[in-house]
Design a protein that fits this description.
homodimer, 231 residues, alpha/beta, Rossmann fold, 8-stranded mixed beta sheet, two-stranded antiparallel sheet
């Protein structure tokens, strides 16, 4: 049974954990402080129930620290908030990342300058979160993908337009990208709709799309949409 | 006959000038220095012939300084390079812009930091070229649109996918946006595909899409594509 670590316990992490369980993976979710996380009783900023409720209903998902999860996983998925991702990965410990694939679906959103959020200046335009992770942990194989849509669609593209819309993939390691593409296909993504944008610097493009995504979301008032490239 | 000024003599400006002539407008193209522009014999950076050749074949298009063109036009279209737009509009003179609609299709691309270009840091993320123009010339009604695609498609959406793909519109003045929407419809844009993203600050979204557009262009190797929102 393939072991996957999901860093981040929010609704995005939960969505992936449930999906990977369905697909037969052995899943551990990583968090900063396990006992604090399980003790929390407050809803999150979007009104979702506390993690403990979700976990009580999803007992097959293991829970550990970032470090325990990263040590456990053969593949790591970064579902932490972009502003916290580098710190979370430092807690995971680079030794637990070396040689592994890190699927990075986070965006460096900066909520400190009003809504809709902008991007963290140091992680945009001539840099990106994907690149920063790759530079900070040169031994891991970062593959940036699926960060251009609402999490429900990431793992269930068939929800809209018969599954006919686009996902993008960025990374320096062709073999790692190929393996992540197979995971996307297991979610229902069509091979023809997964566009390889090149090396990890192309994460600048997908991350900088977020401000437009947020305006689409504001205009459409519903997250269940995506873009399809037409020619 | 409706008078329109097109600021910028490059291939984008030429594309719009030809289209507006076809649609029955009286068109003046504005440039920094008319005699220099007509004397130039070099191809541009993309291998396009010098402006004088295009102009010789398009004699019905008037040519003037930025100031003359802005004074002439009832509507102004900014087709200058984003890095030069504010200066070009200053040469056009705010008095020639006041009360008019300015259609801004430019992007603040920064070619100084390698290819593909990034965005000018001072005009991205928490600002945009569209907003900067609006702040600098508060008397003009800036409408940002069509900056998310190759110029050939801007004025001829039917070229791909039966015309079924999206254009976006940003601006503070609802009446100005309504008039620009009518112009887009005269190009062939379908009403249902023109999405109003809100006030001019939403230009951040469409301008920040350019780095992703450039990666799509790199992967597809052809500019005749666009995005369609699917739900």
């Amino acid at each position: 049974m393939k072991r996957i670590a999901i860093l981040g316990t929010g609704s995005v992490g939960q969505t992936y954990a449930s999906k990977f369980i369905t697909l037969g993976y052995d899943v551990m979710v990583g968090t900063r402080n396990v006992s604090e996380k399980l003790a929390g009783t407050a809803k999150d900023g979007f009104g979702n129930p506390p993690f403990r409720e979700w976990h009580a209903a999803n007992k097959t998902v293991k829970l550990g620290t970032f470090k325990e999860a990263a040590g456990f996983g053969e593949i790591i998925l970064n579902a932490t908030q972009g502003v916290n991702s580098i710190n979370a990965l430092k807690l995971a410990d680079g030794n637990n990342l070396n040689g592994k694939i890190l699927i990075d679906i986070a965006n460096p959103l900066d909520f400190s300058k009003g809504m809709p959020p902008s991007l963290l200046p140091e992680l945009s335009n001539t840099n990106s979160l994907g690149e920063e992770i790759q530079k900070t942990f040169p031994g891991v194989k970062v593959v940036k993908t699926l960060n251009t849509m609402w999490c429900g669609l990431m793992v269930n593209p068939a929800m809209i337009n018969g599954g006919d819309h686009n996902a993008f993939i960025s990374g320096n390691d062709a073999d790692a990208k190929g393996k992540v593409k197979e995971i996307l296909k297991s979610f229902g993504w069509l091979d023809k709709n997964i566009l390889d944008l090149g090396d990890i610097s192309s994460a600048r493009g997908t991350e900088m799309y977020l401000p437009l995504w947020l305006r689409f979301f504001g205009a459409l008032n519903n997250g269940a949409f995506n873009i399809k490239i037409v020619k």
